Amino acid sequence: MKKGLILIVVLLYFSCSDDDSGYQPTPSPLEIPEIFSTNIIPPVIPSDNPQTVEGIALGKKLFFDKILSTDGTQSCASCHSLQNAFAENLPTSVGVTGISGTRNAMPLFNLAWNYGERFNWDGSALSLERQAEEPVENPIELHSDWDSVINRLQNHPEYPELFQLAFNTSTITKELTTKAIAQFERTLISANSKFDRYTLGLTSLTEQELIGLDIFLREDKGDCFHCHGNPNNPLWTNNDFHNNGLDATFTDLGLGAVTGDSNDNGKFRTPSLRNLAYTAPYMHDGRFATLDEVINHYSEGLQNSPTIDPLMKQIAQGGVQLTTQEKADLKAFLLTLSDPSFLNNPDFQN
């Protein structure tokens, strides 16, 4: 009888361990905003990393946890702050060693609708999961290594159980860690700007804002819509890569350094125009401190180069040559794309 009882206990133990318990995390599909559901195709969710309540909670904890850095002083949120729409108010980010990088921290929202699946300013990460890998080991970011991070997580009093709940295993890996972070990042949805509400018939725009929209859409004026979309594209980006005339010569090759194709030199990912009120400074290197400087660049500051985008049609004149009033009108429209509720969402707060 004793041997039989022991055998039953052993069988029960192994039947309830890690992947054999029949336990499944709780599905938590993204809530698609009305403004997205009527205008753009569904989000990109990898089949091997579905959204779950437990995975999102784990990813959020990891995103804000300084355990990912070599000295426990920085987290993902150190350079991607909610008050800046998960961007940063510095031109370029400063890592744990105090060394400043060369790139501005991109804002994080609506990432599940990046259909090109190229992330970072230069398109170097081919999925959101892969994007989460590189900062950990980057010497001018978190400056750690994944073996050390996994060891710290595995010996943490909470994380093994949280991974068990999220992925049905308490064995922590780099792949599962980045999957969890990606799940949380996909929940960062911004879709409640003044212009969103205007599109849904819930509010109106001022005369100046409407004039600014017209300037934005006109090829003979702002000519912004080719890269940044129109009211039928509520992402306000084409998620493509362009040389937008920032420099005549390049110290940062952008996409060209990734593809090895000289025709891609100086091309960077088109950022969304959402939440411009919170994401200064602007451009891949944070060179423009204000939105006025950005508008001035496209109006009269374009620099020619061998890879200048054909969409910069007024390059010979230095830009689209807006008047002072047209610049003010365009700015008024652009600011309607900011979403204050995004910054106050308790689901995104640590």
Give the end-to-end Cα distance, rounded to a whole number of Å: 53 Å
Rg, rounded, reads 23 Å
By secondary-structure content and strand pairing, the structural class works out as: mainly alpha
CATH architecture of the largest domain: Orthogonal Bundle
Top CATH class of the largest domain? Mainly Alpha
CATH-derived topology of the largest domain: Cytochrome Bc1 Complex, Chain D, domain 2
Q: Order of SSEs, N→C?
A: HHHHHHHHHHHHEHEHHH
- Averaged pLDDT: 93
- Under CATH, the homologous superfamily of the largest domain reads Cytochrome c-like domain
Low-pLDDT ranges: 1-17
- Percent of residues in helices comes to 25-40%
Number of beta strands: 2
How does the overall form come out from the CA principal axes?
globular
Total tally of structural domains: 2
Strand order of the biggest β-sheet: 1-2
Assess the beta-strand content as a share of residues. Answer: under 5%
Please report the number of helical segments: 16
Spell out the key features of this protein.
Cytochrome Bc1 Complex, Chain D, domain 2; 2 strands; 350 residues; two-stranded antiparallel ribbon; mainly alpha; 36% helix; 2 domains; 16 helices; disordered N terminus; single chain
Tell me what the structure shows.
This protein has 2 domains: 167 residues, Cytochrome Bc1 Complex, Chain D, domain 2 (Orthogonal Bundle); 149 residues, Cytochrome c-like domain (Cytochrome Bc1 Complex, Chain D, domain 2, Orthogonal Bundle), CATH 1.10.760. 36% of the residues lie in helices and 1% in strands. Helix 3 runs antiparallel to helix 8. It has a two-stranded antiparallel sheet. The chain contains 16 helices and 2 strands. It has 350 residues and is mostly helical.
